[in-house]
Amino acid sequence: MIRIQNIYYMLAYAFQVLNEEGYKQVATEDFEYASDLFAAILAKGINNQIKRGLSREYISKTEAIISPAGKINVSTSIVQNSMLKKKIVCDYDEFTENSYMNKILKTTAMLLIRCPEVSAQYKKALRKAIFYFGSVDEVNLRKVQWSSIRYHRNNNTYKMLLNICYLIIESMLMTEQDGSQKLARYIDDQRMHRLYEKFVLEYYRKHYPQFNASAAIINWDVGSGRIEYLPQMQSDITLRYKGKTLIIDTKYYEHTMQTNSLFNNQTLHSQNMYQIFTYVKNMDSTHSGNVSGLLLYAKTDEDIVPDNDYIIGGNRISVKTLDLNSDFSNISKQLNAIVEKLLL
């Protein structure tokens, strides 16, 4: 299990806007469930966005109006007999706050307000925050087109807010047998894995800029053959320092170890070891031994906590475990110790 407060810190690294002054109070609050944390962040974020101004977009409309606007739709006007009512049907674009981004924000806020798992104080804060969303419609949460959302200079402040909405909707929203909706108390493992990966990358970018942390593409070390048929290799995190390279592959599982039913023993996930070994050997094309690999697991409730170093084929392959349920200062110490041992 991961401490809810640490989810805030992970989000703060992944979405650096959470380090701004307006969110600092959130960092000091205690949350029982992730839904409370998200409600607090959204309430603060929506209020901040209102001060900046809600985004607007042009929406095409066709309706019978008294004063002509846009393009007059003669055929529809005739069919509807609108001119008898001294109106005419027009096709026009309306510049409105009823934008897709605002619809997602309002709908997610309303979901949290209706959710019994969210504390009354955060529901109150959300109700106050969406007071200015009176002209904004709600959307079907099961049909949100995330891929259609485009960010630019004028709406980039929505990026963190909509990512919070995405986490809520895609990882916590559940439908009951009677068709009603409720929220899970925690984020599912798939989305936590993505957040965990992003957090570790941004942590090293912030605290160890000399390591040039990136999610680097790893080229296949092939002498001949059509490499376009080979799958792309991209690391979660690659760190480089004074001729040394460390490739980190983050793993967030319910079970860190796999059980071999034939021999009745537990081992590391074989595909994870094969993957990190492949990354390391292909990046170390000169066989220098200066490229190392690290499997960084999030700690589970299992008794076995991997903490091993191996030299395989001349390269160091390490397996470490990060305890995300400890105080965040301890998490920082663990992350610092890992890279200082392997790179400095």
Task: Give the arrangement of secondary structure elements.
Elements: H1 4-14, H2 24-28, H3 34-52, E1 57-65, E2 71-72, H4 74-80, E3 88-96, H5 100-114, H6 120-129, H7 159-171, E4 173-175, E5 181-183, H8 189-207, E6 217-218, E7 233-234, E8 237-241, E9 244-251, E10 257-260, E11 265-268, H9 270-283, E12 291-298, E13 308-312, E14 315-322, H10 328-343
Parallel strand pairs: 9-12, 12-14
Antiparallel strand pairs: 1-3, 2-3, 4-5, 6-7, 8-9, 10-11, 13-14
Helix pairs in contact: 1-8, 3-5, 3-6, 3-7, 5-6, 5-7
Structural descriptors:
alpha+beta, 5-stranded mixed beta sheet, Trna Endonuclease, Chain: A, domain 1, McrC_bac, 344 residues
Order of helices and strands: HHHEEHEHHHEEHEEEEEEHEEEH
- Please give the CATH architecture of the largest domain: 3-Layer(aba) Sandwich
Top CATH class of the largest domain: Alpha Beta
Q: Which word captures the global form? A: elongated
Distance between the termini: 32 Å
Helix content: 25-40%
Low-pLDDT regions: none
Content of β-strand? 15-25%
State the strand order across the main sheet: 8-9-12-14-13
Largest sheet: 5 strands, mixed
Structural class: alpha+beta
User: What is the count of distinct domains?
Assistant: 3
Backbone CA Rg: 26 Å
User: What is the residue-mean pLDDT, rounded to a whole number?
Assistant: 89
The CATH topology of the largest domain, please? Trna Endonuclease, Chain: A, domain 1
Number of strands: 14
The number of helical elements comes to: 10
Pfam families: McrBC (PF10117)
Protein name: 5-methylcytosine-specific restriction protein C
Organism: Petrotoga halophila DSM 16923
